[in-house]
Amino acid sequence: GQSLEQPSEVTAVEGAIVQINCTYQTSGFYGLSWYQQHDGGAPTFLSYNALDGLEETGRFSSFLSRSDSYGYLLLQELQMKDSASYFCAGPGSARQLTFGSGTQLTVLP
Amino acid sequence: NAGVTQTPKFQVLKTGQSMTLQCAQDMNHNSMYWYRQDPGMGLRLIYYSASEGTTDKGEVPNGYNVSRLNKREFSLRLESAAPSQTSVYFCASSESGGNSYYEQYFGPGTRLTVT
Questions:
Q1: Is residue A26 packed enough to be buried (19+ CB in 10 Å), middle (13-18) or exposed (0-12)?
Q2: Tens digits of per-residue pLDDT, B18-64?
Q3: Relative to the CA of A6, which of A25, A69, A90, B49 has its CA 20 to 30 Å away?
Q4: Chain A residues within 8 angstroms (CB to CB) of chain B
Q5: Is A89's CB within 8 Å of B105's CB?
Q6: Residue of A42, A96, A100 lying closest to B48 (CB–CB)
Q7: How crowded is residue B11: how many other Cβ atoms within 10 Å of its Cβ?
């Protein structure tokens, strides 16, 4: 089975850097995805790490360490519009995704 | 391209009523999914369809049925609604094969209240 844990809330100021961690317990792990969801909106795909290391997409980066059962999403040059919930997602059974419970990021001016 | 569309956007049901949530995608994806999201929680998979003609149970299938009508459409039916089914329902789709399921595209959601 798959269990993913992430902090429930993170607060940072505009222009700062914030890291959202995700730890997981599973037997047979094949990667980690990240999704962003604004209040009242739909989840949108941000990134996918299949292998260990850092993946960078603009201001967002995602990291995976399979040996440490750990990943994180790094948001740089925070903007007010980055205030949202962020979910990590890993493999469930039979090509299903299992989502963490989400981290609510609040960006303060 | 509209991506993934869902109808209705909002619905209020009385306990025991039935309804069908509709979902369609225009990305030519083989795989489609139905999730529910309760306040302050992540997404939980109800049912998924790896390809046209196949459906499989997810984490929380009880009280729901699905139909993969064709490659584009995947519907979710509540036969006898219960207050515990008050939630936001999201449909999603993805490519199939390999690890494609890690990248899913979501519809705008249906906000369902059962009284």
A1: middle
A2: 999 999 999 999 999 999 999 878 899 999 999 998 999 999 999 99
A3: B49
A4: 8, 30-31, 33, 41-45, 48, 50, 87, 89, 91-92, 94-102
A5: no
A6: A96
A7: 17
Per-residue tokens: A86: 């962020």
Q: What is the pLDDT of residues B67-101, one digit of tens each?
A: 998 999 999 999 999 999 999 999 999 998 888 88
Q: Tell me, what's the pLDDT at B96?
A: 87
A87: how many CB neighbours lie within 10 A of its CB? 26
Bond preceding residue A43 cis, omega within 30 of 0 = no
Q: Which among A63, A83, A77 is positioned nearest to A22, based on CA atoms? A: A63
pLDDT tens, chain A, 109 aa long: 568 999 999 999 999 999 999 998 866 667 899 999 999 999 999 999 999 999 998 999 999 998 888 999 999 999 999 999 999 999 877 778 999 999 999 999 9
Q: What integer pLDDT is reported at residue A39 of this predicted model? A: 94
CA gap A92, A98 in Å, rounded: 5
Cα–Cα nearest to A103, from A13, A20, A19 = A20
